Amino acid sequence: MGRSLSHEPRDPAFDARVRASFGRQPLMATLGATITHVAAGEVDIALPFDARFTQQHGFLHAGIVTSAVDTACGYAALTLMEPGAAVLSVEFKLNMLAPASGTHFRATGRVLRAGRTITVCAGELFAIDDQLETSVAVMQATIMTVRDRPALVD
Amino acid sequence: MGRSLSHEPRDPAFDARVRASFGRQPLMATLGATITHVAAGEVDIALPFDARFTQQHGFLHAGIVTSAVDTACGYAALTLMEPGAAVLSVEFKLNMLAPASGTHFRATGRVLRAGRTITVCAGELFAIDDQLETSVAVMQATIMTVRDRPALVD
Amino acid sequence: MGRSLSHEPRDPAFDARVRASFGRQPLMATLGATITHVAAGEVDIALPFDARFTQQHGFLHAGIVTSAVDTACGYAALTLMEPGAAVLSVEFKLNMLAPASGTHFRATGRVLRAGRTITVCAGELFAIDDQLETSVAVMQATIMTVRDRPALVD
Amino acid sequence: MGRSLSHEPRDPAFDARVRASFGRQPLMATLGATITHVAAGEVDIALPFDARFTQQHGFLHAGIVTSAVDTACGYAALTLMEPGAAVLSVEFKLNMLAPASGTHFRATGRVLRAGRTITVCAGELFAIDDQLETSVAVMQATIMTVRDRPALVD
Questions:
Q1: Which pLDDT tens digit goes with each residue over C6-42?
Q2: Given A91, A118, A120, which is nearest C144 (Cβ)?
Q3: Chain-chain contact of C91 with A117 (C-beta, under 8 angstroms)
C-alpha cells in the first residue's frame, strides 16, 4: 500500500542484538525456529511443521502460529530501539486465514510505525509446500519499548 | 458485570465430547495441560510452568499463553454446539496484563454470546503462586461453528 | 469473574476532571451523549438512538458504538491518572454481539489493569428498550498515559 | 507484501450495488463521506474534517475514524458477495498511529481473504494536508456474509 518503510535504527549493532535476544528464547529452540531475515523494521522467522504442536485437526495450533508471528513482530520492533531498551508485547490480534498446514512456515514482522514508547507492527504467517507460499494468518500487534529496567534488556 | 450465563447446550454429551476433542490436541499434551472444568459455556485448563516454553526474560511466551486461552475459549464455545459440528478459531486478541510468571497457570474460556455461526468468548490467564492467583492476560475471541464437513468434527 | 476493582486514584479531583474533559469532546455533544457514572476505574455514558448515526440496516453504526465505548474506556483510565497527564487511545478491538437497536444505549468502561504507562480496559455497550438491557458489543482497549506534553492535558 | 488481490466478484453489478448500499447509510451522509473507489475487493471513502466529530484534543475521534474504515472494509467485502447476501461487521481492531489531524481523510478497505462465510479485511485511514498523505490508523476486520435473511440485503 505504498507505505515508506524507511525506519532508521538507533542502534548500529541491531542485527547482532536481535539475533542474540532471539537465541535466548527457549521457546524458539523448542519449536525449531530460526531467524532468517533481519533488517531495519523487519524480521522473518522460519518454522518447521511438528506434530507435537498441532491442534485436534492436525494443523499447527493457532497459539504456535501466534508464537512465531508475535516473536517476529517483537524483534522487528527491537531493530529500531536504542541500546539498553527491552521489547514487550502489549497486545496482538490474529486472524486465521487458512489452516496452518504445510511442511514449513515463514513468519514475518514489519514495523508500521515506531513511536517513542509504542511500536505498531503487522505480522503474517505463510505456509510453505513445494515452494508455494500461502498466507495462513495476519497479525496487528502493539509493542512497547521498556527503558530504565536493568533487569530487562534485549 | 451481571451477565446471564444461562447457555443451553444442544448436545447432552457435551462434557465427554469436549474432553475427547481436547485429548486429540497434541499441543495440550506437549504443554502438560489438562482440562479442569467443563460446564455449559465454560472451560478451564491447567498448565504447569515449563522453561522450554519461555521467552527471553524467563516468562511463559505470549504465544503459549495464547495457546492455553484460545483452547479454553474454543472448547467453551464447543460446549454449546450441536453434535456433528466442529469448532474453528476465526480470530482473537490478547492483552498481556503482567509477566506470565508462576509455578502453575489457569486458563479460562467463557461464552459471551453463542450465535448460530459465530460465538464470542472472553478468556483469561491466571498465574498461580502459593495459592495466589494473578491475572496475566485477557482475550476476546471469535469462534466459528463449522457444519457439513465430515472431515472436521469435534 | 471476581476481579478486585480496588483501583486507587492518584488525583482526588478525578470526578470533576473526567467530567470536564468529557465536556470538551464535541463528538459527545453531537451524539447527545452524557456521562452518567464516574468512579475509580469506572465510567458510564448514556446515548440516545438517533437515525442520523445509523448504518444501512437502521441500526446504530458500529463506529458510533465504538465512539461511546472507547470514550467510556478512555475516561475510566483517566480516573486513575495523576494530575497533568493526558489519556490516549492506543488501540481497541470491538466485537458486535447483536444489532445496536434500541431507544437508548449505555456504554461502560472498566479498568482491568492500570500500569504506569499502559492501562487495559474492558468496555461494553448495552441497548435499552422498555427498561430491558441487552449487550450489543464488547471492547478490549489499550490506553496510554501521556506525560510532559503541556499541549496535551486532560 | 506481494499478496495477490485477484478476487473474483460473484455479482457483475457489484459496483452499483456497493454504491447503492453506501447511499443508504445515514451516518455516511451525516459525516459528509463519499465513496471514491470501488473495485473487486477494494473500497475507498473520502471524509472531510469536521469539528463536530472531534475528541477533546481537537482531532477526529477514534470512533469516527473507525466509522469510515469499518465502512470501507465492509463494502470491500461486499464487492465479492453474491446477489442477495448482506454484509455484517463481526469485529474489528484499530490501532491509532498518529493524531487524526488534517483537512481531509481517506479510508481504505482491502480484502485479504474472502471465504464462504468469513471475509478478512485490512483497512487504513490517511490524513491529507496539502496533498501529503499520512497514515493515521490501521484496522484488521472480520466481516460475515449473511444469507437467507430477506430483511437483510445489501
A1: 588 999 999 999 999 999 999 999 999 999 999 999 9
A2: A118
A3: no
Class of residue B70 by CB neighbours under 10 A (exposed 0-12, middle 13-18, buried 19+): buried
| Greatest Cα pair distance in chain C | 47
The verdict on D90 touching B (C-beta cutoff 8 Å) is yes
Asked if A91's CB is within 8 angstroms of B56's CB, the reply is no
> Does B52 touch chain D if contact means CB atoms closer than 8 Å?
no
Alpha-carbon gap, residue D143 to B113, rounded angstroms: 17
Residue D91 contacts B, CB cutoff 8 Å: yes
Q: For helices C62-78 and D62-78, what crossing angle results, to 10°?
A: 150
Tens-place pLDDT, residues A101-128: 999 999 999 999 999 999 999 999 999 9
Q: In chain D, where are the structural domains located?
A: 14-146
The pTM for the full model equals 0.96
What is the fold, at CATH topology level, of the domain defined by C14-146?
Answer: Thiol Ester Dehydrase; Chain A (3.10.129)
Cα C140 to Cα C13, C124, C143, C146: the distances in Å are 26, 9, 10, 20
Q: Do residues D98 and D59 make contact, with C-beta atoms less than 8 angstroms apart?
A: no
Instruction: Assess whether pLDDT exceeds 90 at residue B99.
Output: yes
Of C24, C62, C92, the CB nearest to D70: C62
